[in-house]
UniProtKB/TrEMBL annotation:
<keyword id="KW-0472">Membrane</keyword>
<dbReference type="GO" id="GO:0016989">
    <property type="term" value="F:sigma factor antagonist activity"/>
</dbReference>
<dbReference type="Pfam" id="PF04773">
    <property type="entry name" value="FecR"/>
</dbReference>
<protein>
    <submittedName>
        <fullName>FecR domain-containing protein</fullName>
    </submittedName>
</protein>
<keyword id="KW-0812">Transmembrane</keyword>
<dbReference type="InterPro" id="IPR006860">
    <property type="entry name" value="FecR"/>
</dbReference>
<dbReference type="Pfam" id="PF16220">
    <property type="entry name" value="DUF4880"/>
</dbReference>
<feature type="domain" description="FecR N-terminal">
    <location>
        <begin position="19"/>
        <end position="57"/>
    </location>
</feature>
<feature type="domain" description="FecR protein">
    <location>
        <begin position="139"/>
        <end position="235"/>
    </location>
</feature>
<dbReference type="InterPro" id="IPR012373">
    <property type="entry name" value="Ferrdict_sens_TM"/>
</dbReference>
<dbReference type="InterPro" id="IPR032623">
    <property type="entry name" value="FecR_N"/>
</dbReference>
<feature type="transmembrane region" description="Helical">
    <location>
        <begin position="104"/>
        <end position="126"/>
    </location>
</feature>
<keyword id="KW-1133">Transmembrane helix</keyword>
Length: 360
């Protein structure tokens, strides 16, 4: 028998009611008065009966949540209760933060409690339950600006210039989709909800740590992914489009600890792990960018991520000159002064700015 589809506009609002009736009808003290109230509810709206029948059909098809899934749900519920208690404590941080936590924790508690009390919802309900995000939000930093974000569980993000990402928290995992740019992640530990960063062809999984990820797909010479670990440990894989939950099943992984970094090309092929000094991890937090024997055109493109330099290169020979040094990406005046001394070039005034040309 095919399940009766729910009207899309009623689905979210009806699920708590349907689950409530499912739970109550299985109790030993279910009475004639309760049955009358249930029948009245079924007749109160044309969407109620199809909604309830859908859950009954799911229940008939699969009669129980797997034991391991049920155990995980109980653990998630306990964790949510602890977060809610912390948010409501007098010593909680700020009222705004408390409201944010409650917004995503409270629905989780109600639905999880209902699922724990009924075995009739089955595996299908469990899968649907796991697939619904508790919290979603998109963040973007402006060109030349940084952005700091605190997530509902206390994890923190710091976005560099021109960075776009999306955050989604589920009951069994936390995910960030990094579309472009670079960010530092300070992740609160929660073994029951691993933290995944999906960055182009690469997936990163952590439990609790601080690390940086860079992904600039449109930047020539720097269109891959770079991951550097400041604290803790992360697992990096070539994901080939795999979603967050599947990352743990990918065997070809590299594990990074503090003081290590790894790069991947645009296709996701991982390079060997390399050491990295603490000051070299996300130096942009201190308004520094560094180049080591970097083609001038690539270095200039990096400056342009932070703001217009007013500089152009038209000579291929000039574009391949190598630049080394540490700079403030917002200080283009100093860059203009340094270039003729650091490289065999001169700056020529042209329409719309300055062109970097070979020295005569």
């Amino acid at each position: 028998m095919n399940a009766t589809p729910l009207p899309p506009h009623n689905t979210a609002g009806l699920r708590p009611q349907v689950l409530d009736w499912c739970v109550r009808r299985q109790r030993a003290d279910w009475s004639t008065a309760d049955e009358q109230a249930f029948q009245q509810w079924l007749e109160a709206d044309s969407s109620h009966r199809p909604a309830y029948l859908q859950w009954e059909q799911h229940s008939a098809a699969i009669d129980a949540i797997p034991a391991d899934a049920l155990a995980q749900l109980r653990r998630n519920l306990a964790h949510d209760k602890a977060q809610l208690a912390a948010a409501e404590a007098p010593a909680s941080r700020a009222a705004a933060a408390t409201v944010l936590r409650r917004r995503w924790v409270l629905p989780s508690l109600g639905m999880a409690a209902a699922l724990l009390m009924t075995s009739g919802t089955g595996l299908l309900a469990w899968q649907h339950w796991q697939a619904q995000p508790l919290f979603t939000q998109a963040y973007a930093s402006e060109r030349g600006r940084q952005l700091e974000v605190q997530l509902p569980d206390g994890s923190q993000l710091r976005l560099d210039t021109a960075t776009r990402l999306e955050v989604a928290y589920y009951r069994d995992r936390r995910e960030v989709l990094l579309h472009e740019g670079q960010a530092v992640f300070s992740v609160q530990a929660n073994p029951e909800r691993p933290f995944h960063v999906l960055s182009g062809p690469v997936g990163i999984t952590v439990v609790g740590t601080r690390f940086s990820v860079r992904y600039t797909p449109g930047l020539a010479g720097s269109d891959g992914v770079r991951v550097a670990v400041e604290e803790g440990k992360v697992r990096v894989v070539r994901r080939d489009g795999a979603p967050g939950p599947a990352l743990a099943q990918i065997p070809e992984a590299q594990t990074l600890v503090a003081g290590q970094q790894i790069r991947a090309d645009a296709q996701g092929s991982l390079h060997p792990i390399q050491p990295v000094a603490a000051e070299g991890i996300a130096a942009w937090r201190e308004h520094r960018i560094s180049f080591v024997n970097t083609p001038l055109a690539q270095a200039l493109a990096e400056f342009e991520r932070y703001g217009s330099t007013g500089l152009t290169i038209n000579d291929p020979a000039v574009a391949t000159l190598r630049l080394s040094g540490t700079f403030d990406p917002s200080d283009t005046l100093t860059l203009r002064k340094i270039l003729p001394h650091a490289l065999p070039v001169r700056l020529q005034q042209v329409a719309g700015g300055l062109e970097i040309r070979a020295a005569r």
